[in-house]
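Translate sequence into structure tokens.
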Amino acid sequence: MNSKDGIPPAGAFGQLDQMWFRLRSSEQNSSLTGGCSLRLQFLESHLLLIPVSGRGWITVDGKYGELRAGAAFVCLPGQLIEACLDSSGEPNIYILRFDVFSQQNPPVQPGRISSTEPPLPFSLEGETTMSSSVTYSKHCEAITASLGSTDPLQQLLAQSRFYELLFSLLSDARQLQPSDTDTIMERAKTYIEQHYREELSISLLAGEAGISVRHFIRLFKQKYGLSAIEYLTEYRIRQARSLMLPHTNYELKDIAAYVGYKDVPYFRRKFKQITGVAPATFMRNAKLKIVAYHGSLIGALLTLNIIPCAAPADHPWTEYYRRKYETDAVLPLAQDDAIRIQQLASLRPDYILGLEPSVSRRMLPQLQAIAPTFFVSKLQTDWRTQLHFIGECVGRAPEAAAWLNNYERKAKSIRAQLGQDSAMGKLLLARISGQSITLLSTRSLAEVFYDDLNFIPASVVDRRLSNQTITPEELWSSDADKLLFIVDEDAASQALWSAFRDRESLLPPDPAGFSRIEYLPPYPWTEYSSFTQELVLDSALALWRNQT
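Result follows.
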């Protein structure tokens, strides 16, 4: 993420007169250090983070960003977030949770999609610059004090002051002028996402970007690997798929009209072109009840837009489905095998998916008696192979193939962008666990950076080894141009990471002024699935981009 992610496109404030806001809570939190107060969680409401002092990090749906004074973060309901402040100095941050509502609320006919579903998007998302940390600190201090009062008038005053805070935030965002190609293109892409239901043309989008049509066409394709109209089509189909999930009951013509298609046959053609299957097939498959018997398979199901009817109760993705799709239909599976069998027998699923090593021979016939059961074998260790296999098992092979084609297209586009700037160079990936440093040379991050994006491993990296350890001295004497760490949350790991970060100033500066060292929290980055691989891919351009 960069400091201009929050810049709204021209015209984004036109929807403000259709919204009203309700502040849920406001707290001053100076304890996001060591053990994170904002641990990995799924948001029920909008979240506004306003750092007053100190520095730290935040991940939003796996994308890494920097917390620092002068920049606020706006996070949306359903997003997966985690945040932490550096323990040095006097860190201080305000955390405000709020709801956004539409003022238009016409009666909803059964089976019809209301104009408020999905809700109107807030005008800002991600990082946005604040003109004065002192001014925003005073805003937040007054809001927090009034909201904490038992006097109803003071609580009303808190809501009024929150509107003043939003006004300041949106005003600052509107005054920012984009100065680089990345920001201009991101602005155009955001405009598409906020206005996808409308008639959009290349000339209109080029006007929003403030450049000529010919220049816009070239830059958009160069940045995202597909044309703006192709991106609009993909985004519309993505929204249509979310309206075809089991907890919805909309007719195809209503879905087509809602996402911007008046011609239903044309919508059908585009839907099949993007997903690999016809809308009717997708909707029929969406009603199948599929069990994720093992948590590591949930990422692949998420990629295929499948909500499992049951999943392990202790796996974070189980909560993700409930928040993201606003459904309580995911049955949390107990840890006890006997209880699980009873749960599944009552549920009567269509398919059960599991991992071969994790199910005992005694359990196998019991599961097969309930529903067709498929197991990912020890030989299917590659995430692409797993996704293909799962797609075949549950009748989603075309969707899996379409998703993989899109992943390869995206990787090609990012490779091209990395090759045009100074972000490339020899890379070292490592995980810090206690006092141990393990090089990440296979699977997960290594596959994305070394194989898909063609980063060159530092000479010390032996990609034939899966658990290669290294000493701090060997790490610092390596020829790595950039280092990316996965850092565990225990005190010893955090202490070693702090020592490494302090040494960055001793390294030769990056020619482009970017940072040399970055880090990510263990989860979800250490999970190996198609969903996580795409998160890594999407974050590649943002890493090391913070100016040193």
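Note: Confidence is low (pLDDT under 50) at residues 1-11, 31-36, 114-118.
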